[in-house]
Amino acid sequence: MEMRKIYDVVIIGGGPGGYVAAIRASKLGLQAALVEKAKLGGTCLHAGCIPSKALLRSAEIYANMKNAEQFGVVVPEVDFDFSKAQSRKEQITEQLYKGVQHLMKKGKIDVYEGFGRIAGPRSVLVEKSGDGILTLGAENILVATGSRPRSLPGLEPDGKYVMTSDEALQMTDLPKSIIIVGGGVIGIEWASMFSDFGLDVTIIEYEDRILPLEDRDISREMQRLLKKKKVKMITNAKVLLETLEKGNGIFIKAEHKGEEKSFTAEKILVSIGRNPNTENIGLDILDVEMDQAFIKTNEYYQTNVPNIYAIGDVIGGLQLAHVASHEGMIAIEHMAGNCLARLDPILVPKCIYSNPEVASVGLTEEQAKKEGFFIKTSKFSFRAIGKALVFGNSDGFVKFVVEEGSSQVLGVHMVGPNVTEMISGAGLAQVFNLTAMDIAETIHPHPTLSEAIGEAALAVTGMEIHM
Ligand code: FAD
C-alpha cells in the first residue's frame, strides 16, 4: 500500500459540503484532497436540488402554457415530451458538474476517485475497484459522505412500482397516477410537479398536516392550494405495509382515523427522510461518537477525535445543501485556527420549490410561544400585490412572527410566487436583530412581489396600506 503525500485536510465526499470545504481550504492556503466515490457535486447536483428543480421548472411551464390564454397567448394544443425535460435536466447537471471539476483544478485540489475510509487518525484509504488501494496522509479529516433515501421495510424500490426520489429522477415516462408516502419537503415538491404534469396524485402523511415542520398557517395554505390542484392528501394516516399488493399498478391500505382506507396508483414514491452514509467508513476504528445513526460534532463540526470533522447530511439536523456548505466552511476555518460564528439553525432559510413556493426563516408561531416569547403576528396576502396579479399567481401570503413590544422579528414565513427568492432579506433581518419597523422603513420597490414583505411588516402595527 503506497503512502501518498500528507495533506492538511482529506475530505471524504464531494457533495456541496465536501467540495465547498475543499475550495475554502484552498483559498486559505491549505493543501486539500477530496475523495469521491461517484461524481463531484453529490446528491444535490446529481439526485437532489438541481435535477428536481429542472423538472419542476418544466412542469411549471407546462402548467402555465395550459393557462396561457388568460395572458392573451393562444396556444392551440399544449403537449409534453418528458424525455426532453429529462435531457434538459441532464444538460444542466452536466454543465454544473463540469463547473465543479473546473473549480477543483483551479483550486489545485487533488481529487481522488474511489471509496474513502478512515484508517487511523491521520490516514485515509482510497479504494477504487480494480485499481487497488492507496493511503493518503491527513493532518485533518473531514467526513462529508452525505445521505441516501430512507425506505420503508417492505416498500423498497423494486424497479417497477416503488421509487424513492433517486429513481423518480430517472423515470423515462410519467405514470398517470402516483401515491406519495410522506408530505414533507421532498414529497410536496414531487406532488406539485406531478400534479402540474397532469398526474393523479395522492399524498399519505403520518402527521396531522403536510409540511409538519413549517408554520401551521403555511401548512394549511399549502394544503388548500394543493387541493385546488386536485392533489388528494390523507393526513394522520399510517401505511399498512402488510396490505401492499402489486400487479396492475400498486394497491395499498392506510389506517386513517381508526379506519382502513385503500389506495391504488401506477406507482408509489416513498419520501420519508434520508439516512446518513456512515457505514464502513472507519468511524468505529477511532470510536467516533455517534448520535443514533448520525455523527456527533461540536459547534465547529469537530468530532470527539479532535482532528476528525464531519459536516452536512451525515451529521443530521437540517439536511440542506446550503447548510452543508456553510458547515464545511466553518470546519475548515477551525482547522486553520479561525473560529467563525457557529451556524444557528434558526437563521437558516428553508425553501420548498413547489408551485407556488414556500420559504421561511426563524421561529414558527408555535415555536416562539413554546420558547416563552410574547408574540404578535401579521399576514399580508399576495392578492393585494399588483405584481402578483401581473404574474397571474396571487395565491399565498407573507406572515411575520415578532416579539410583542420590541417588534423584533422572530420568524418570517411565506407561501406564494417566487418567495424562495425573497427569503434571504428576511434572513438578514434576523441575523441583525431587526424589528418589523426596520423592515417597514426599508423601501420595497413597486411593483414587486417583495412589497408583500413591507406590507406584512407594516401590518404588525396595523399600518398596512393595501388591505
Ligand atoms: P451529499 O450531497 O449527499 O454528498 C455526499 C457525497 O459523498 C456524494 O457525492 C457521495 O457519492 C460521496 N460519498 C459517500 N460516501 C463516500 C465514501 N465512503 N467515499 C467517497 N465518497 C463518498 N437541499 C437544498 O438545500 N435545496 C434543495 O432544493 C434540495 N432539494 C433536494 C431534492 C431532493 C430530491 C433531495 C433528495 C435532496 C434535496 N436537498 C436539497 C438536500 C441536499 O441535496 C442535501 O442536503 C445535500 O446534498 C447534502 O450535502 P452533503 O455534502 O452533506 O452530502
Automatic annotation (TrEMBL):
**Entry keyword annotation includes NAD:** yes
**Domain (FAD/NAD(P)-binding): residue spans on this chain:** 7-328
Report the cofactors. FAD
Q: Where are the transmembrane segments?
A: none
Q: Which reaction does it catalyse?
A: N(6)-[(R)-dihydrolipoyl]-L-lysyl-[protein] + NAD(+) = N(6)-[(R)-lipoyl]-L-lysyl-[protein] + NADH + H(+)
Domain (Pyridine nucleotide-disulphide oxidoreductase dimerisation): residue spans on this chain: 348-457
InterPro entries from the UniProt entry: Class-I_Pyr_Nuc-Dis_Oxidored, FAD/NAD-bd_sf, FAD/NAD-binding_dom, FAD/NAD-linked_Rdtase_dimer_sf, Lipoamide_DH, Pyr_nuc-diS_OxRdtase, Pyr_nucl-diS_OxRdtase_dimer, Pyr_OxRdtase_I_AS
Instruction: Kindly name one Pfam family recorded for this protein.
Output: Pyr_redox_dim
Q: What's the Enzyme Commission number for this chain? A: 1.8.1.4
Keywords attached to this Swiss-Prot or TrEMBL record, sorted alphabetically, are:
Cytoplasm, Disulfide bond, FAD, Flavoprotein, NAD, Oxidoreductase, Redox-active center
- List localization entries: Cytoplasm
Tell me how the cofactor is bound.
Binds 1 FAD per subunit.
Q: What does the record's miscellaneous section state?
A: The active site is a redox-active disulfide bond.
Family per similarity comment: Belongs to the class-I pyridine nucleotide-disulfide oxidoreductase family.
**Mind telling me what this protein is named?**
Dihydrolipoyl dehydrogenase
Origin organism of this chain? Answer: Siminovitchia terrae
